[in-house]
Amino acid sequence: MRTRFGCTVIAIAGLLFVGAVGRANTQAKAEEPVQIVEMTAKKYKYAPEEIRVKQGTRVQLKIRATDRTHGFKIRLYPEGTPEKGEPGLRMTDNQNNFKLGKNQERIIEFVAERPGTYVFRCSVFCGMGHRGMSGKVIVE
Ligand SMILES: [Cu+2]
């Protein structure tokens, strides 16, 4: 009885181990290369205004608004295409509009799934030049 119990414990431990290794492998395969871009936002410009990334990259935009609160809203479909089907940018936290508090670093993460030009603009009214405050992410 004792031996049989022992065998069962070992068998269960073995299954758990195999399961863990399997999961680790799947995760490793799903990992994309990461590109980190440091950005600033201030009246009425983002710097840099143009960001180039390779298709398949996980991108982290680290944005800090330096003069006041701004916003960052990015279109998830390439310029010139309708907003239909799978988006070209897969946002990590399922939103595409962010508020950028003054002097607070915000990390905006997405996977660049499809090539194209993705326009972003300020989504918090910040003055006379607000409407012109924009930039683009180009996925190559
Ligand atoms: Cu603004």
Describe this structure in words.
The protein has 140 residues and is of the alpha+beta class. It has two domains: 1-31; 34-139, Immunoglobulin-like. 21% of the residues lie in helices and 40% in strands. Strands 2-1-4-8-6 form a five-stranded mixed β-sheet, with no helix packed on it. A five-stranded mixed β-sheet has the order 3-10-9-5-7, with no helix packed on it. Residues 7-29 have low confidence and may be disordered. It binds copper (II) ion (CU). The site of copper (II) ion has 6 residues, from loops.
List keywords for this structure.
single chain; 140 residues; alpha+beta; Immunoglobulin-like; 5-stranded mixed sheet; 1 helix; binds copper (II) ion
Shape: globular
Which CATH C-level class of the largest domain is it?
Answer: Mainly Beta
**Can you name the CATH architecture of the largest domain?**
Sandwich
CATH superfamily annotation of the largest domain? Cupredoxins -  blue copper proteins
**Regions with little confidence, pLDDT below 50 for 5+ residues:** 7-29
Number of domains: 2
Strand order of the largest sheet: 2-1-4-8-6
What is the count of β-strands?
10
Beta-strand level of the residues, as a percent range?
Answer: 35-45%
What is the third-level CATH name, the topology of the largest domain? Immunoglobulin-like
**Largest beta-sheet details:** 5 strands, mixed
Question: Which class do the helix and strand fractions yield?
Answer: alpha+beta
Helix content: 10-25%
Kindly report the average pLDDT value: 86
List the helices and strands in order: HEEEEEEEEEE
Distinct bound molecules: copper (II) ion
Instruction: Please work out how many helical segments DSSP would assign.
Output: 1
**End-to-end gap:** 64 Å
Tell me the radius of gyration.
22 Å
